[in-house]
Structure formats: C-alpha cells, structure tokens
Amino acid sequence: MNRLVTTVLSVSALALNTAAFANESVLKNSADPKQWVIQAGNYDNNRYSKLDQINSGNVAKMVPSWSFSTGVLRGHEGSPLVVGDVMYVHTPFPNIVYALDLNNDGKILWKYEPKQDPNVVPVMCCDTVNRGLAYADGKIFLHQADTTVVALNAQTGKVEWSVANGDPKKGETNTATVLPVKDKLIVGISGGEFGVQCHVTAYDIKSGKKIWRAYSVGPDDQILFDPEKTTALGKPVGADSSLKTWQGDQWKTGGGCTWGWYSYDPDLNLVYYGSGNPSTWNPKQRPGDNKWSMTLFARDPDTGMAKWAYQMTPHDEWDYDGVNEVPLVNQKIDGKDRKLLVHFDRNGFGYTLDRVSGELLVAEKYDPTVNWATKVDMDRNSPTFGRPMVNAKFSTEQNGEDVNSKGICPAALGSKDQQPAAFSPKTGLFYVPTNHVCMDYEPFRVSYTPGQPYVGATLAMYPAPGGTHMGNFIAWDATKGKIVWTDQEQFSVWSGALATAGDIVFYGTLEGYLKAVDAKTGKLLYKYKTPSGIIGNVMTYQHKGKQYVAVLSGVGGWAGIGLAAGLTDPNAGLGAVGGYAALSNYTSLGGVLTVFALPD
Amino acid sequence: MAVAVLAALTLAAPARAESDKVAADKAVSSQDGKFFDANGEPTYKIGPDGKVDWYTYSGFQRYSAECLRCHGPDGMGSSYAPALANSLKTLSYGDFLSTVANGRKNLEGGQEKVMPTLGLDKNVMCFIDDIYIYLKARSDDALGRGRPPGKEPKSKAWEEGVNACMGPPS
Questions:
Q1: CB of B64 within 8 Å of any CB in chain A?
Q2: CB distance A455–B123 less than 8 Å?
Q3: Distances in Å between the alpha carbon of A256 and those of A192, A457, B46?
Q4: Mutation site, A113, A404, A452, interface B, largest B CB count within 10 A
Q5: Is A131 annotated as a binding residue?
Q6: Is A193 one of the annotated binding-site residues?
Q7: Does A489 appear as a known binding residue?
Q8: Was A240 annotated as part of a binding site?
Q9: Shortest CA gap A261–chain B (Å)
Q10: For chain B, which terminal residue's Cβ has fewer other Cβ atoms within 10 angstroms, N or C?
Q11: Which residues on neighbouring strands pair with residue A423, listed in sequence order?
Q12: Which residues on chain A are in Cβ contact (under 8 Å) with B134?
C-alpha cells in the first residue's frame, strides 16, 4: 500500500516539473486540495481529494452547512468549482453561471445567462443537462447547450471570447464540460441520435480560434490518423481505417459523439477520451465495424493526431456509447509498475489498458449480469483479439429488423453511464456508480432527415433478473478486474463519486440521498436526503480552514425519463406490470446546491 | 352530509366522462386492418386475448423510438414532459395532429419546455395515426404498460402507405 502511495506521489511530482508544458494554472490549482478547478478534480480524472478533516471517524456528525437554489428545474449534472474564495455554479439549459462569494455567505458576485434559441431544447437527447465548467488562466469556460463555447472573466463574468462549435439545426448540441490543456481548450459535441458526424476540437485558450478538429469517423485527414504511426492493439491502423468499415457514405451521418469526459497525461502529452454510438440504433442499416465509434482514443493535444485507438464495441447493436471517463492511474500489473488507464464502459466491461501504448491488459465484467458478450478475447494470437465475443441470442444484428431481442444485459443506458467513478490511491480501488438494468431491443428501419432524430429501435428496460434493485455502488480492483464489495441501491446510481484521504467515498442517489461509505468496506457511514434526486457529482473544498462537501441535486437526465414512472417487467405477463418503484414517488424536480461540513 | 354528497358527485363525474370517452373511442368500422370510431377518427381494436391491431402495435414501436426520449416509456411522462397517456384523455385528434406537426413552447416557471416541430420528420409523420391510435388505447386503459402481448399481421395497404411516405426500402 505504502509503495503505491509513494508511486502516485512521485508521479505527481514529475507532473509538476513539466508544468511549463501543461496548463500551469490547471496543474498548480488542481494540486491544491483546497480548490476544485476542473470537473474531475485534476487531469488524471481520479476524483480524489487529499482533504481528510472529514473522515471515516467523524463523517457521521456531518451536517448541511448552507444551500443555494439555482432557479432551474431540469436535471443537474456536474459539480460546482471552487477557485480561491469563489464558488462557480452552473445550471442545465439555459446554462446560467453564478459566481458565489464564499467570504460573504455565498452572495452572488456575478451571474451570466446566455441567450439561446429554445429550439435547441428538444434537439438534446435525454434532458437539457450540462456537466459543468472548467477554470484556467483567470477564465471560466462554459460549453452551452447550443454548442457556443464561452470564456468568461472569472472576476467579472464578462465574455472574453465566444465561438460556435456546432449547429443545433443539424442536431449538434452539447452537454459536456471542456478541458483546458496547455494553451488550448479541448471540446466535444453531442448528436448521436441525430446522425451527426461528431468530433473533438481544440480552441486557442486566449482567443477562441480553432486550432484543430478530429472527427471520430471519416477519412484519415478528418479523423487525424496517421496510417503508419497511429496504432490499434499495437499494430499500425493502415490507410482508411474508418472508411473501410462503413458502407458507402454512411460515415457522414455516423455519430461517434464525444460528449463524455477528457483526461490528460502531462508527461506523455496525451489526451484520452471515448466516442459514442454509431448512428442509427438499427445495426442492420449500417453494415461494418463502424470505426471509430465506441472507441478509446489517445491524442496529441498540440496537433490532434491519434497515437492509438481501441474500439471496444465494433458494430454496436445496443447503444453502448464508449464516452465514459478515462481515469489515469499508476499501479502494478503482474508485479510491474504500469502507466494505466481504466474505463468502465457502458457495455458492462471494465477495461484496463497501458496508456502509453494502448495495450489491452484487463477486460472483465463489472456487473455479473452482463450477457451480450461472453468475454473479450484476450488471446494475442487470435484474429479476434480485443473483440467482444457476442452472444448470438442477444445480437440485435443477427436477430434482425422487427425482431424483439429479449433479456439483454445491460440496457442501453449501460452498466454505467457518464456518472464518473472515483479512485483512491490509499486503497488502490475504484468506486463505481452503476446501473443494474436490462432490456428488450427491437431495431427497425428509419430514414435520415438533418436535424431530426435518427434512432430506429424500440427499447423496454427493467431491473436485472434476480432482484428488484436497479443500481449498485461497487469497489473495483482494476489490476485484476474484480469487484471487491457491492452496495445495492434501489435505483440506478446516477451521481459521480468522490474519494478522499479521510478513507471515505461519497455519492448521491436518485431518491436524493448524499451518502458517505467506508472506502475499505462499503459500510454506510452517513446519509442525508437533499431536496431532489442527485445526478450531479460530489466535490470537496476547504475554506478558512474548514473542509466542505458539495453536491447539486435536481433529478432529470436519462434517469428522469426512464425511471420517473417506474420500470415494468415485460416478461412478467399481463397484470403484473408496474411492479417496480417509481422515482416520482420519492422525489421531485428542483436544482439546489447543498454544502456539508462538520459542526463547529 | 351535504359535503359528503358533493364529494361523491365530483368523484362520479370524471368517472362517467371517462367511460363515455372509452365508449366513443370504440371501433365501429375498419378498412385494411385500420379501425375507426363513430366519428370516423382512427382508433384501436384489442381482442379479448390482448392481441392488438397492427396500427396499435406499430404505434407502440414508433412511440418508443421517437417520443419516449421525452415523454417516457408507455406514455407515462418524464421529469420534464407530460404523460401522453393522460393528455389524450382530453386532447382531440385534430389538436394532437397540429401539436405534433407544429410543436409547442412553454418557457415559464423555471422549466424550458419545448415540443419540437415534427411536421417534416418522416419517422414521425409517416406513422402519426399509428402513434395516435396507440396513445388512445393507453389513455383509455385499454392497453397496459409495456409491449402489447400480441398483434395482428401488418396489412399490404399499411406497407404500401409506409413505403410511399418513407421512400422505398434501401
């Protein structure tokens, strides 16, 4: 254990030495546990804080300290930031930003409310969420629903620059946060249900000028792949690696959206992220592997060029977007120190890769009910190395159009969606919010109209067999691919976790509880019911010598759609429907920030 | 006593109206597997074994693909969009068509509720009667939640209509 801590610390120290090459402001401020300057806490996306004033011994005494209503009722994802003595709080559409004075009981220092065309609202899949702000170089960065990226002066809230990253009329919208890297801002886009050809773009952090754009699907010069130098599972990808896996021009409406999280390794100078589903949800309509949808990428932030790529779910048949977070850790595998990335995919597999080379090391199910694939082929000499072994019974491609494939686990929302996991270097474990939900999936033919939904499948979701609970909060050993402990939850856990040096892990539940559990055992140490269901991420900061824990509540998002009226069991026969808990019996709408602390 | 009588009356009134609605939605004629009520508006036909007409089934499919993302599974609503299984208890066929085609906005009260203009979306408009028929069955409680337990086969007329509207299969 001690050796592990030492390793992590020495890597952090190395990272500090290269500060001039990374974004100095992000590196310096995220190394200070009193602040929380980007959504994931720091570049490695560990969601870990060194603060330990609140710990496993005293968290039971924690109380709400103050709260703040955002004035918006839709789903609240992401978390606030704390920079110095100021807290920055964002909202879903209309994407208001508040700067709150922590020295003056949260008095509003400034408020920014963009004017956006309300017609963007129905173009957003699954509610109008926004996963938050980022801070660097004296600026607060916001990526609005209508894809306008704005840099706000952190002192005054004045717009320093603004740029349109996409066009909502074509179905291009945004829900994600952004990541400041060096002198650039890394920005993704949504629209996979609208047939958008999605991309990642780097803008100049000072002016908003576009530097490069890398699509997920398309010709090599659009996806920024070098046929010789870009590798997949250790081999060069070759020319037209994406085009060859699509029929005709279908890549032009191919999806592969980039609405998840971004991590960055300053030593390797690589940015990591995943791409989403290929459009449409009807696999019959788009033959081929549909590269590079459902893919983990490592890209050079200076040029956008891909160093390596790994497609997790070739030719998606279930909407298992690959956008979930990509936390970076240094752990031992087979006794050797490795630079790793870990990724809990929607498809139910927890992947561990060497982040330098993209070598696949571990791929195991992090929910035992996952059944669409028996395993990922780990035999290096096999022609199907790295591919999931699809179970024919659950293949919506093999069963075909207008056939209802039943009992597929996980459901389209995945064993886990975007809600990010946390990692504690003290325990060496990941803490993962998960969904325990399965589905029936029936694909059918759709036609493409720009700016209109392009879905093509009928889904029914229900709790996984053998229980009525729809979520688990688990601890995971990524070096072995094993679950260490599991806490059952009645509903999917849709909140991002936070691990701290106080040996506790925080997360929120859809009923609205903020919970603290023991990092070693998962034992519940504290819970408090906030005003609404929690789909936001827990963060922590210190002000005037006191540690605080903060979370946004405000139910919505996919959870607010699928679970509002409760799930039904289509296989239970007539008369037995409606047997599962309806979220609307537990909580109602309302965006509120609740801040917790120990009593004085 | 007077209060109790009044309460009983107010309870009885909507119940009667609802059963009147179910009666009015009853299929009295059909053409090529599509059913119509006494007003000549499209409606559902559900057998004693729960087997539904093809339009109701097709409506379930299309609703689940095109509408569910906001209005929730089975027309039950979401945290931000109304339960259509409830709305269609009062919404007329004509108002349904115009709301879908033209959209609707309600930007008051901290919620930006926007129904898109779907008049040009073939995946919706080529199946608009199907979706209406399905939701009508849901609003009358003639059809439960989830996938209908059985269905009549699709008619040639339906298939030809869809092909003409969507363009031929690729």
A1: yes
A2: yes
A3: 7, 18, 41
A4: A452
A5: yes
A6: yes
A7: no
A8: no
A9: 23
A10: N
A11: A430
A12: none
Provide the ipTM.
Answer: 0.76
Choosing among B80, B87, B127, B158, which should be mutated to test the A contact, i.e. which has the most A CBs within 10 A? B80
Tell me how far apart the alpha carbons of residues B55 and B49 are, in angstroms, rounded to a whole number.
Answer: 17
Cα–Cα separations (whole angstroms), residue A500 to A107, A182, A519, A536, A538: 28, 27, 9, 17, 11
The first and second tokens of residue A82, run together, are: 């704390």
- Count other C-beta atoms under 10 Å from residue A558's C-beta: 23
- Which of A538, A430, A584, A490 is CA-nearest to residue A39? A538
The domain spanning residue A505 has which CATH number? 2.140.10.10
When pLDDT is averaged across residues A489-497 and rounded to a whole number, the result is 95
Instruction: Give the per-residue pLDDT at B114.
Output: 87
Contacts of A137 (CB under 8 A, 6+ apart): A23, A25, A180, A205, A206
- CA nearest to B62 within chain A: A458
Q: Which whole number is the average pLDDT over A156-182? A: 96
**Mean pLDDT across chain A, nearest whole number?**
92
Contacts of B54 in chain A (CB under 8 A): none
Domains and CATH numbers, chain B: 38-159 (1.10.760.10)
Band of pLDDT at residue B12, cut at 50, 70 and 90: very low
Quick check: bond before A410 cis, omega within 30? Answer: yes
Q: What is the pLDDT of residue A568?
A: 61
What's the structural domain count of chain A? 1
Q: Which amino acid is at B145?
A: R
- Tell whether B159 is within 8 A of chain A (Cβ): no
Shortest CA distance from B75: residue in chain A: A565
Beta-carbon contacts of A584 under 8 Å, excluding residues fewer than 6 positions away, are A564, A565, A566
Q: Can you give the residue range of the structural domain that contains A119?
A: 2-597
Smallest CA–CA distance, residue B130 to chain A, in Å, is 15
The residue in chain B having the minimum alpha-carbon distance to the alpha carbon of residue A462 is B146
Tokens of A106: 């949260």
The closest of A140, A49, A137, A43 to A88, measured between CA atoms, is A140
| Nearest by CB: A74 against B61, B80, B103 | B80
* Number of H-type helices and E-type strands within chain A: 5, 40
Query: What are the C-alpha distances in Å from B111 to residues A78, A127, A446, B7, B80?
Result: 19, 11, 31, 34, 8
CA dihedral in degrees (A375, A376, A382, A386; nearest 10)?
Answer: 170
pLDDT in tens, A77-129: 999 999 999 999 999 999 999 999 999 999 999 999 999 988 888 888 678 99
Task: Evaluate whether A486 touches A473 at the Cβ level (below 8 Å).
Answer: yes
Query: CA-based diameter of chain A, in Å?
Result: 67
The pLDDT confidence band at residue A569, using thresholds 50, 70 and 90, is low
Closest among A20, A9, A85 to A48, alpha carbons compared: A9
Q: Which of A123, A440, A577 sits opposite B144 (nearest CB)?
A: A577
Q: How far apart are CA B94 and CA B96, in angstroms?
A: 5
Q: Which residue has the tokens 């807290």?
A: A87
Contacts of A34 (CB under 8 A, 6+ apart): A51, A82, A541, A542, A543
Residue A12 phi/psi, 5-degree rounding, is -60, -40
- Residues from chain A contacting residue B78 (CB–CB below 8 Å): 127, 560-561, 564
In this structure, what token pair is assigned to residue A493?
Answer: 């856990």
State whether residue A586 is helix, strand or coil. coil
Q: Which of A146, A269, A245, A165 is nearest to A209 (CA)?
A: A165
Strand partners, A549: A540, A596
A98 vs B163, more confident: A98
The residue ranges of DSSP E strands in A275-420, in sequence order, are 295-299, 306-311, 328-333, 336-344, 349-354, 360-365, 373-376, 388-390, 405-408
Contact: A570, B72; criterion CB under 8 Å: no
Q: Measuring CA to CA, which residue among A207, A154, A212, A153 is closest to residue A187?
A: A212
* Close Cβ partners of B113 (under 8 Å, ≥ 6 residues apart): A121, B80, B81, B104, B105, B106, B107
* Chain A residue numbers touching B80 (CB-CB < 8 A): 73-75, 127-128, 556, 560, 589
